[in-house]
Description:
The structure holds 2 protein chains of 2 kinds.
Chain A: E1 5-10, E2 15-21, H1 27-35, E3 41-49, E4 56-64, H2 70-96, H3 98-113, H4 142-146
Antiparallel strand pairs in A: 1-2, 2-4, 3-4
Chain B: E1 23-28, E2 31-36, E3 41-44, H1 46-54, H2 62-69, H3 79-89, E4 99-103, E5 110-112, H4 131-142, E6 148-154, H5 162-179, E7 182-188, H6 196-204, E8 207-212, H7 217-223, E9 224-226, H8 231-248, E10 259-261, E11 263-264, H9 272-281, E12 286-287, E13 290-291, H10 296-300, H11 302-305, H12 309-328, E14 334-335, H13 336-346, E15 366-369, E16 374-376, H14 379-386, E17 393-396, H15 401-406, H16 408-416, H17 438-445, H18 456-474, H19 477-486
Parallel strand pairs in B: 4-6, 4-15, 6-7, 7-8, 8-10, 11-13, 12-14
Antiparallel strand pairs in B: 1-2, 2-3, 5-9, 15-16, 16-17
Helix pairs in contact in B: 4-5, 9-12, 12-18
Amino acid sequence: MSQHTLERFDAETNAAVLSLDAGVYPIDVVYGAAYALIDRAYVLLDKESRADGKGSRFLVHLRGKAKLDEAGVQALSGEFGNELLSQALRRKVVKQNGKLIEEIVTQAIAGATGASLPQDFVDDDDDDLDFLDDPLGIAVPWEEKFSKKA
Amino acid sequence: MTEPRLDGLISLRKVKGDFAVPFNHRAVGDNFLITNDLGDLTFVTPGELQKLAYGDIAKDEPLYARLADKNFIAAELDIPAQAERWRRKNQFLFYGPTLHAFVLTGRCNFGCQYCHSSIVGMHRTDTDMSIEVAERAVDMAFQSTSPGITIEFQGGEPMANWEVLQHIVEYARQKNALVGKSLTFSLVSNLSLMTEEKLDYLLERRIQICTSIDGPKDLHNKHRIYRDADGFDTTTGWMKRINERYVEMGLDTNLYRVEALPTVTRAMLSRPQDLVDTYVELGCRAIFLRKLDPFGFAARTAKTLGYSMEQFIHFYIEAVDYIIELNKQGVQVMERNAAIMLSKMIADYEPNYLDLRSPGGAVIGQLGYHPDGRIYSSDEGRMVGAMGDEAFCIGTLDNTYQELMTAASTRALVIAGTNLGQPDCVSCTYRPYCGQQPEYNYKTQGTIGGRMRDSTWCRKHKYIFDYLAKKLHDADADDLAMFDRWTTNRPQEHFLQEAGAI
């Protein structure tokens, strides 16, 4: 089976059905690609087992918000295919760069919420920020502080 | 001309993976442009590229020193220095939104055919921002962790709600006397409601003034319809008056002029030189060639005013070629897209232009405040909202700042606006200098991630980067001096509110 197929198009009901092998794309990718069509069509997703019992396929029911013709449905189908590939590839790229992306995004949001500040904004001359000061003796070891003098 | 090709030039079996730092390449003329993650770039011949890939460059070769100087040779990388450099260029990651766009009203007295902001008639005072909302919005803006914030007055025509504009300025200045941020105000106006008294106030309060000029008079008046008078004469008359006042105030006229922006329409495509000449005659030192965007009325009028990206790029190149020609004749004028991109490419400077950074500026770089208290990811997000789609409304003034910054939608927009998560961007030669806008992706392709391969956003920026890369490749000393002028960052410190001023 090809990756996705235009199963049928009914001009009278302005509806079309696309199908694709459920083994090719993860379900999240199918959701994402179908979502990209909702400004132009009403979309319903379904899944059915293949007649030979080997595997299953997703069915994407589309009803055009505006009047569709054969060329319009083909274009919609093509765009759905492109979006499937794009979403699948993005998942892969995000997984590969996941750690880096996570660090950048975390830093960006932490920066925006005040969880961190750039070094430039810390005044080096401010005595209050001298972390080597220890007026309460917190850094003094317990043994040293409380041990009996010899 | 045939571009050089990698197949036949590089054998993967011979590549020495640890010799060069990770880099991307793109053919420019007979040579290759190479860039690394740090934002360095240089041009190499096909033979030099092969030697770099194979690690076949002796230390005493001039090529070794040239590539080491540009941080392409792994063994020569000064990692602490480069980490510091990365931090400087990505400083925007360490603080929150700097730009706060206040939509003071939906009312406008101009009927611009492509209007970006979905305006209403002047009688609709119900669309004005109230004093209460204004104060709460200022309170929200001041909670940003950014050490500097800009409050930008937008509309509609923001001067239609003059009392609230003044109130915001006074209230924000009072707050800032305690908080001490670098505070600036910016007014985006058609200037038709300007009076000498209002101008006195704007100048006294150091409010930067920006407007729109859509080319020569006939084109401007065709697209920016004003029934009360000649729109072009009205706007340009005030531009001249404001510039005169800057002179009277003793400000450096190279730096302080009314900023104007054109929106490029189909009718303008055949007249790039007329557009540039109009700006030069008005005394502008910069032109920001903006393509029609897919928001607001522009989406609805695309059939009559719109054009393909290729047509825009053709126009853009003609206009910038002409600008370069004028520079050679001693006229000082530049194009803003080019200046921003060149700053990143050759000046090692990050101008924090919110549309061309990674992650993009949605929420963490800017917020858009609707008159009724809704808050959007950006001005573009607000325009999507004006079209009846609240996808980019991240909250209201009833939310706390922390809630807005940590919302799931904020996180989604930041991830979507990160180049490392985009299939095409991740391997693009221009990745260190580029960025994308989730709102644009959503409006044009249906998802905030978009598909860069067939995105007009990507095509536009890649075309311009290619154009600039070719200019750099072919540049002589005079060209480089011109680009140096375009990329010299001169802060407009006059517009900074004085610390502690009330």
